């Protein structure tokens, strides 16, 4: 873990995901040393920051999906009519979200 990131939004999703796995294992094993907070904060390590950022990104992804779903309709049959531009736009949006740049 490090102080390599200036903002929590800059931490890549794969770094956050690995940290979640570590935190989960620590909680199961009742190891509290992984739950300590650092000063200055380590944006890719401190449990409160990591958990909060992952929650925000999940909310952002859900919102992005809701927009896409609204574009194509609520019925699964509507998905057959999706054009490639719509799919490309969603993929670009998701890529930005998961590269640490929430919409």
Features:
103 residues, mainly alpha, 3 helices, 0% strand
The percentage of residues in β strands lies in under 5%
Q: What structural category characterises the helix and strand content?
A: mainly alpha
Low-confidence stretches: none
Global Rg: 17 Å
Distance between the termini: 25 Å
Number of H- or I-type helical stretches? 3
Number of strands: 0
State the helical fraction: 55-70%
Mean pLDDT metric: 82
What is the number of domains? 1
Summarize the structure.
The protein is an all-alpha fold and 103 residues long. Helices cover 55% and strands 0% of the residues. The chain is elongated.
What does this structure look like?
The model has no long low-confidence stretch (mean pLDDT 82). The chain is built from three helices and no strands. It has helices at 13-28, 47-72, 84-98. It is elongated and about 50 Å long. It is mainly α and 103 residues long. The protein has one domain.
């Amino acid at each position: 873990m490090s102080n390599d990131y200036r903002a929590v939004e800059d931490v890549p999703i794969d770094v956050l995901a690995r940290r979640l796995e570590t935190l989960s294992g620590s909680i199961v094993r009742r190891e509290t040393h992984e739950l300590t907070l650092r000063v200055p904060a380590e944006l890719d390590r401190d449990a409160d920051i990591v958990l909060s950022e992952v929650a925000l990104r999940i909310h952002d992804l859900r919102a992005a999906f809701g927009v896409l779903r609204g574009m194509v309709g609520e019925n699964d049959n509507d998905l057959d009519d999706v054009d490639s531009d719509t799919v490309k736009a969603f993929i670009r949006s998701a890529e930005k979200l998961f590269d640490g740049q929430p919409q």
